[in-house]
Amino acid sequence: MKRARTIAGEIQEFIRRERVAPGGRLPTEHALARRFRVSRTLLREAIQALKTMGVVESGPRVGIRVLAFDPRSHIDSMISRIHTEDERRELYEFRCLIEPAILGLVARRAAPRDLDRLESILRSPYPLHRDPVADGFARDAAFHEELWRISGNRFLYGLRGLLVRYFADIQQEQKVSEAEIRRAREQHLAIVRALKAGDLKRAQKELTLNLGMFRKNGGRK
Fold first, then answer.
1. Is the dihedral of CA 188, 194, 197, 200 positive or negative?
2. Whether 120 and 200 share a structural domain
3. What does DSSP assign to residue 128?
4. pLDDT band at 170 (very low <50, low <70, confident <90, very high)
C-alpha cells in the first residue's frame, strides 16, 4: 500500500513534470486522490508532508498552491537532528571547506556598500546592557551570515540556520573570554580590509584563521 511519503514524492514529480509555477494551483484533493489511486485521508497526509517541507500551502480559499522554492525551508529541518560530537565535527569541517570558497563569490559580487555593511556590524558600539561575550557571538554570526548573503547564492544563504546553531552551541558549551572575542573581531576586520583591497587570498587566509579559533569537538585550537 502506498504511504504518504511516497505520494508526496509523486506529487512533487507531478509539479515538476507539469511545470506548475510558484503560485500555481494543483488539482483538488478529490482529483489528486483519484489520480494517485489513494484515499482522501492518505492524500491529506501527503499534502501535510509537502506543507511541512515548504513545497505547497493549502486552505479553503487558496486550494493547494505551489510555493516558491526556498532552500532554507529544507536545510533548517536538519538543525534539530544535529546531536552527536561526530555530527558537530563534520559540520565544522563542512564550514571550513566551503566558507573560504564563498569569499570568491563575495569578491566578485560585493558592492562597496556591502563591504561597508560588513564593517559596520563589527564597529557599531556595544550596547551597555549586553554581555560583551554574548554580543561578540551575535556579531560574529551576523558577520558570517552577511558574507553568505552577499555571495548571492540562495543555496549557500539557506545554510545560515546551521551557521547560527553552530555559534549558539559554542556559546553554551565553551567558556570564551573577552580577549578571544576581540581577537575574532580583529580577524573579521582584516577580512573586510582584504576584500576592500581586492586581495582575495589574504581574505581567505584570515577567514581560515578565524574559523580555526573555535572547534565543535570540545575545545579551542
1. negative
2. yes
3. T
4. low
Is the pLDDT confidence value at 167 over 70? no
Closest CA to 91 of 183, 168, 177, 185: 168
DSSP 117-136: HHHHHHHSPPPTTS-HHHHH
The three-state DSSP-derived secondary structure of 65-82 is EECCCCHHHHHHHHHHHC
Domain containing residue 143: CATH number: 1.20.120.530
Percent of the chain as helix, strand, coil, to the nearest 5: 70, 5, 25
- Residue ranges making up the domain that contains 173: 74-211
Nearest to 158 by CA among 69, 49, 67: 69
Whose CA is closest to 54, among 41, 42, 68, 44?
68
Quote the number of domains for the chain: 2
- Residues 123 and 36 reside in one and the same domain: no
Quote the pTM value.
0.73
Report whether pLDDT(79) > 80.
Answer: no
53 in Cβ contact with 45 (< 8 Å): no
